[in-house]
Each structure stands twice: as C-alpha cells, then as structure tokens.
Amino acid sequence: MIVQTAMPAASASLAPDLPVIEVEGLAKHFDMHHLGQRLDAFSGIGFRIMPGQFLLLTGHNGAGKSTLLRTLYRSYLPQAGHVWLNTAEGRIDLARAADVDVALLRRREIGFVTQFLNARPRVPAEDLVAEPLRLAGRPAAEALAVARAALAEFGVKRELWAAYPSTFSGGEQQKVNLARALILPQRLLLLDEPTASLDAGARAALVRRLAALKAQGVAMIGVFHHPGDVAGLIDAELNLDNKETSNVAK
Ligand SMILES: Nc1ncnc2c1ncn2[C@@H]1O[C@H](COP(=O)(O)OP(=O)(O)OP(=O)(O)O)[C@@H](O)[C@H]1O
Fold first, then answer.
1. ipTM, 2 decimals?
2. Ligand 1 and 225: CB distance under 6 A
3. Which of 33, 35, 130, 151 could form a disulfide bond with 143, CB atoms 3.0-4.6 angstroms apart?
4. Where is each ABC transporter domain found (predicted)?
5. What is the pLDDT of residues 75-132, one digit of tens each?
6. Which residues pair with 231 in a beta bridge?
7. CA-to-CA distance for 29 and 67, rounded, in angstroms?
8. Is the CB of 57 under 6 A from ligand 1?
9. 3-state helix, strand, coil in the chain (%, to 5)
C-alpha cells in the first residue's frame, strides 16, 4: 500500500501541454588547470520532458550522466546551452538564472535525489524528514506524522525514528534520505542512482513512490545502476554515448 504522505504535486498548476523542462544545446566541460587540460563532460544535449514523463540517462562510466544531472540542478554552470523550466512564475532558463532564484526553484520546483544523506548533528531522523513539509508551511505535528509514515514506508525501523542518522548503516541512511527527498513532490525530480545500496523492500517502496509521483504529473530524469528496477516507469532513454533519445515501448 502506498502511504499517501504527500502534498499535491507542484505541477498541478501547470498546463498539461507545456513541457516541464526543455534542454537545448547543453555543454559542460571541466578546466583542469593543474594539468593544463580541458575535459568535455558532454555537449550538444537536447531533449524535452512533459509532465509525468520519465527519462532514463544511460552511457558508459564517465559518459557524463551525473554531471548532466548536476548541471540541470545548477550545481554546475554549463558553458553553452539552455535549460528552460516552466515554473509557476513562468519560463526560466536555469543555465542563466540568478543564484537566489535557483535556491527558490530548488525549494519549490526541482528535487534532487541521490543515495547519500546529508546527516546533520543532533537532528533526529524524523525531524530531518519532516523539515521540507514544515518549511512549506505544514503544521509541525502533521509534518511529523507524515514523516513517520514515510520512514515506515521505506522500512526504517521505529526505534530509529527519533535517533540521529549519523550512526545509521549506509542503507538506513539512504532510506532516510529517500523519505526526505520525496516527501514534498516537485515538478521535476532528478534521480542519481537512488537504489544503489537499498534492500529489496526499500527498492520496491521507492518504485511505488515514483509511480505515484509520475501519476501526479511529476517529471523525472534518472540514472539507475539497475534500470530494470524502474522499467515500467521509463518513457524515453537518452544515451550519452551517442546523444540519441529513444522512446521506450510500453
Ligand atoms: N568536478 C569535476 N572536475 C573535473 N572532472 C570532473 C568533475 N566531475 C566529473 N568530472 C569528469 O567528467 C566525466 C563525467 O563524469 P560523471 O560522473 O558525470 O560520469 P557518469 O556517466 O556519471 O559516470 P559513472 O557511470 O561512472 O557514475 C568523467 O570523466 C569525470 O572524471
């Protein structure tokens, strides 16, 4: 059973025929000054994703998959191209947006899910998970109840809910991370190998949660070590080895 812990999707306010994201001619390289070299991570990337669509990124090790996700999240600035995002405030080019706008968009419109938890000293797991809801204005008691349901959904044992995640196992930390990252649906979700060290139960819970978000119109771009985990959700694949996008038959 999917525990309905989420607020309505941010994309509810967007016209369904507008793409969530349109990427044009995106290029990123790294200058390795100490070596006097330049490393091209990717160039000439273009695609568009509609509400509720799931794009799988594939390619060999070092093809640029994680770098592309980080560039879409604006952790990296691209050297060329556009990342048009249709938001509640209108169409914004993330490749050129001011840092302050990027910070706001990350709070309201774009989620980034990795396998790594940013555990903070003396912050219990349940508070860490509830925080995005509290910041979005949900009453504290309600946010806590939703956070506990999410922790249960991902299989974090009850004894750990009020404990500090810095002492948790790798898999337990990852489960707390997923519960937090997915508690507040955003218009666009970037997923960087979120299933890496999860047990079977948590992998299944994640897939159920992603399916529910997709049904609410959340667009997703993801890298998965085992794409079979999310096979039923994938609409298209972008292979960074040849930069070709192909639709996936259902
Ligand atoms: N901060 C950085 N500085 C310099 N080079 C970097 C940086 N980040 C990534 N790279 C390089 O960019 C290339 C793409 O890396 P990236 O991590 O995006 O690949 P990937 O497709 O995600 O690989 P994998 O499948 O192994 O996770 C690699 O050659 C990597 O060494």
1. 0.97
2. no
3. 130
4. 21-250
5. 999 999 999 999 888 899 999 999 999 998 988 899 998 877 777 888 999 999 999 9
6. none
7. 10
8. no
9. 35, 25, 40
> Tokens 């925080």 identify what position?
131
- Which CATH number is associated with domain 21-120+168-239? 3.40.50.300
Helix (H) or strand (E) holding 102: helix 99-108
Task: Report yes or no: 125 and 146 within 8 Å, Cβ to Cβ.
Answer: no
Among 227, 125, 102, 228, which residue's Cα sits nearest to residue 180?
A: 125
Q: What are the CA-CA distances from residue 224 to residues 67, 75, 203 (Å)?
A: 14, 20, 12
58: β partners = 239
Distance CA 248, CA 112 (A): 23
113: tokens are 């899910």
Q: Give the whole-angstrom CA distance, residue 117 versus residue 92.
A: 29
CA distance 159 to 18: 45
Pocket test for ligand 1, best of 26, 28, 30 (most atoms within 8 A of CB): 30
> 206: which 2 tokens?
């994640």
Could you tell me the two tokens for 61? 């090790």
What pTM was estimated for this model as a whole?
A: 0.89
Enter the tokens of residue 48: 């568009």
Please work out whether the CB of residue 238 comes within 6 Å of at least one atom of ligand 1. no
Q: Which residue has the tokens 């390289």?
A: 29
CA proximity to 56, closest of 242, 250, 171, 220: 220
Run of H or E including 110: strand 110-113
